Amino acid sequence: MDQHFARTDMLPPMPPPVTERGAIKWGRENLFSTPLNIALTVLGVGIIWWVITASLPWWLNSVWTASSLGECRDIVAASAGEGATGACWAMIRQWWGAFIFGFYPPTEWWRPILAFGLLFAALSPVLFSGQTRNLTLILGVVLVFLVGTLWLAEAPALAFALSVALVVGLLALAQVRPGLTLWFTVAYPALCFWLLWGGSVWGPLVAMAGFAILYGVFRFGSPFIGLAPAAGAGVVAAVLWWLYLDVPVVNSLQSMLPFSLRSINSDQFGGFLLAIVIGVTGISFSLPIGILLALGRQSDMLIVKSLSVGFIEFIRGVPLITLLFTASLLLQYFLPPGTNFDIILRVIILVTFFAAAYLAEVIRGGLAALPRGQYEAADALGLDYWRAQRLIILPQALKISIPSIVSTFIGLFKDTTLVAFVGLMDPLKGVTQIVRADINWKGIYWEPYIFVGAIFFVICFGMSRYSMYLEKKLKTDHR
Amino acid sequence: MAEASKMQISDEIAIQITGMNKWYGQFHVLRDINMTVQRGERIVICGPSGSGKSTLIRCINRLEEHQQGHIIVDGTELTNDLKNIDKVRSEVGMVFQHFNLFPHLTILENLTLAPIWVRKVPKREAEETAMYFLEKVKIPEQAHKYPGQLSGGQQQRVAIARSLCMRPRIMLFDEPTSALDPEMIKEVLDTMIQLAEEGMTMICVTHEMGFAQAVANRVIFMDQGQIVEQNEPKEFFSNPKSDRTKLFLSQILGH
């Protein structure tokens, strides 16, 4: 046999056989590979079919315009025949204001809207640090959102002009010096508090000045008396400021420059306004507290360590509802008589502590996952404890813990619905109860819960996607 | 070469350890250590594993605490005083067996971090210094990569450059080549030899006996937490005095 061979024409590429590609291959491998799998596939398809046939008419027969549940049912019966089911979204059309704002007076709705828009302007320098493109994108969306919604909410012309000018200014700043937009983030808490609760503009400003005093004493004291004593002196100075000087300073400034918004009481807050206020404040304060607790738990100093462990174990060992009852009932007994300590503030503090205890353990896991060599290398280079933590240890430990940190945040946000138990009007139970007590909508059951659930889902899903983006962006070790 | 570098050794004392003892709980790891290192000396410490050699050099920059005796580095005694510890640490560079680069920072950031935050050097100047030392260890083109993208030998050279950026007066090497593939050992040793030729005071814990013969002006052999023998490399290898040293040398040079 002749063993010599030379190819004269090259073979063209051919597609794989039909049974080995695309949907057929996938189906053969995943759905029909064994008799058991075939049976399970048939069963699964049956269940999906049953769910769809049972619920689809309900979605398709949705009614969007009606003034009561009875009218809804009449419309469904008229269009789809007697006995047909149909969703009645007309209820949402009538009550959406309560779901979003609670009993916040409609003439002032522009204030939470503005605070919500500016929240993203304040978050973006933190979430997308140094990335001018993302920063510009978010600020642009905020601008469009605010122009649209403020106009719809009939905001006063001055407020409208000022807020548009603010966002445009931030946009311009983001182009030139994106780092400086962080200062807006620093100022945001005071601004947000003033917008939401109203009253004199000087209240939150003077309260914030306490933090500035803390920092100033720490900054200028530390070269002379050392870091820890300076920090202690700063805290003492700030507390003294809040206790004794805050009120007189606010009053005198207010009499000189009266500049205030109509004040809104905490019991008028409700719906997603309340959930987001508690959630966002809780999230932003629980992270730094959680970090400090995690470091405290690892500390060599006995007192610091046992205080941290005690705090974490106590808070984690108690149901959140217990803490909320503590906030609403017990705290009042411990405080000096006459102090009016806002209920939302009390709830925020305890929700923050609750999340911080969980975060501390999550972050401790991240710290434990770091090899000892990282600590040793930082020590050997002469970095002191706080610098080593800030520059070397925490960036890596937090990165490892991102998935669990975000889980804790999502849990915290969903737990804000538990404030219903202390009489606050959360969107899930509080508002829904009011809607269902309305004579026109008595008996409505699925629609409000689906509506609230969908909004919760959108927000939590957004957080989860952001955490995935962050993990990808920070992935530097195995490239 | 050995003759030329011998001349750089000065009478000035860089490190003095007297009567030093260390325990881990009940376990006596370092027993009555006495040693003096002059400026410009290059010392190789060898010995079987568990003999306390790594612990000894980790005491010199206080990564480990000693319980008895005195360690004086560059005229500063190591005590519980944090200021003294920070001062010594910023004068003494250390290279680890597992490199311990910071994986979340680029090579350049790894090199500039300590100069910027500890020495308060302006960023531009720190980057220039960093590039100078990266060129010296022959990997300037990797400056903007992350440690995970480099080979072991490159990472160890970056680690050496990172220490050098702090302009240390003393360098400690803790088994710098033990975690490397054979062909990468040479590039790291070359860097260390170059450093030795420039007159850096060096203490190396290593099993590279070739390096010891070429560069060291003194070899210290440790066993069971004690200094068993120290001598010039030529004498040490050709004419070891103690039986323990003879056994050790026959085991590591025997094949």
Strand elements of chain A, count? 2
Helix content of chain B: 25-40%
Name of the level-1 CATH class of one domain in chain A: Mainly Alpha
Helical stretch tally of chain A: 18
Radius of gyration of chain A: 29 Å
Fraction in beta strands of chain B:
15-25%
Average of pLDDT of chain A:
88
User: Could you name the ranges of chain B where pLDDT drops below 50 across 5 or more consecutive residues?
Assistant: 1-5
Overall radius of gyration of chain B: 18 Å
The rough form of chain A would be described as globular
Strand order of the largest sheet of chain A: 1-2
Which class of secondary structure composition applies to the elements of chain A? mainly alpha
Poorly predicted sequence stretches spanning 5 or more consecutive residues of chain A: none
How many beta-strand segments of chain B? 10
Structural class of chain B: alpha/beta
Question: Residue share in helices of chain A?
Answer: over 70%
Task: Name the pair of protein chains with the most residues at their interface, and give those residue counts.
Answer: A-B, 22 and 28 residues
DSSP helical segment count of chain B: 10
Structure description:
- The complex is a heterodimer of chains A (479) and B (255).
- Chain A has a domain at 97-104 and 268-479: Orthogonal Bundle (MetI-like fold), CATH 1.10.3720.10.
- Helix content of chain A is 74%, strand content 1%.
- Chain A has helices spanning 22-30, 35-60, 69-80, 90-101, 110-127, 132-152, 157-176, 182-197, 202-225, 227-256, 271-298, 302-316, 320-334, 343-369, 372-380, 385-415, 427-437, 446-474; strands spanning 199-200, 260-261.
- Chain A has a two-stranded antiparallel ribbon.
- In chain A, helix 14 (343-369) crosses helix 16, helix 15 packs across helix 16 (385-415) and helix 16 packs antiparallel against helix 18 (446-474).
- The two termini of chain A are 53 Å apart.
- The mean pLDDT of chain A is 88.
- Chain B contains ten helices and ten strands.
- In chain B, the strands form two sheets. Chain B has a six-stranded mixed sheet with strand order 6-7-8-3-9-10, sandwiched between helices.
- Chain B has helices spanning 2-6, 53-60, 82-91, 107-117, 123-136, 152-164, 182-197, 209-215, 233-238, 243-253; strands at residues 13-24, 27-38, 42-46, 68-73, 76-77, 92-95, 170-174, 201-205, 218-223, 226-231.
- In chain B, helix 4 packs across helix 5 (123-136).
- In chain B, 47% of the residues are buried.
- Chain A binds chain B through residues 371, 373-374, 376-377, 379-384, 387, 391-392, 395-396, 399, 474, 476-479, and chain B through 61, 63, 82, 86, 89-90, 92-94, 96, 98-104, 113-114, 117-118, 146-149, 162-163, 166.
